[in-house]
Amino acid sequence: MAVDPSGAALAALRTHAPNEPVVMLNLLRFAPGGRDAYQEYSRRAAPFLRQYGGELLYAGDGGAPLVAEDGQAWDAVLLVRYPSRDAFSRMVADPEYQRITTLRSQALSEAVLQPTVPWARRGRD
User: Fold this and answer.
1) Whole-prediction pTM value?
2) For residue 38, how many other CB atoms are within 10 A of its CB?
3) Looking at the DSSP assignment, which residues form a beta bridge with residue 112?
4) What is the pLDDT of residue 2?
5) Gap between the Cα atoms of 5 and 93, Å rounded
6) Cβ neighbourhood burial of 93 (10 Å; 0-12, 13-18, 19+)
7) Gap between the Cα atoms of 101 and 117, Å rounded
8) Residue 54: pLDDT over 70
9) Per-residue DSSP letters for 44-65?
10) How does the average pLDDT of the chain come out, rounded?
């Protein structure tokens, strides 16, 4: 299962409103023992988040879904706001940040990383 964005996905991200703020939805499924590794990744990623203007809006454990198909339950949910898609792209391309991404990759068995756009802006795009 995929846990890291591909180069093509990152390139596509920058083509749509690259200078507009974006909130990234993170749905995480931990590998066995992965929760501790993800917490270490989060601790080490925090300075990069600040450096690129990001802000953790919400982080919480996933509960039992009320409406979902089998296999759609997630261990954790995060919402992270970035000042722009470009800022997010620059962060993930930062060589120092890339050194810690193995922690994230090893911690997860599956993930969704989805950019979101506020409904109030939908008509402008």
Assistant:
1) 0.84
2) 21
3) 27
4) 57
5) 11
6) exposed
7) 25
8) yes
9) HHHHHHHHTT-EEEEEEE----
10) 87
Domain ranges of the chain: 7-62+74-117
Pick among 3.40.50.880, 3.30.70.100, 1.10.10.60, 3.30.1120.10: CATH of 7-62+74-117: 3.30.70.100
Which single residue is written with the structure tokens 């722009």?
84
Tokens linked to 100: 């810690």
For residue 12, the model assigns a pLDDT of 59
Mean pLDDT (whole number) for 46-53: 98
Question: How many Å apart are CA 52 and CA 63, to the nearest integer?
Answer: 31
Match 């270490």 to its residue by tokens: 40
What's phi and psi for 27, nearest 5 deg? -110, 125
pLDDT value at 7 more than 70: no
Residue in the structure block whose two tokens are 């979902």: 68
Q: Which tens digit of pLDDT belongs to each residue from 81-121?
A: 999 999 999 999 999 999 999 999 999 999 999 999 888 76
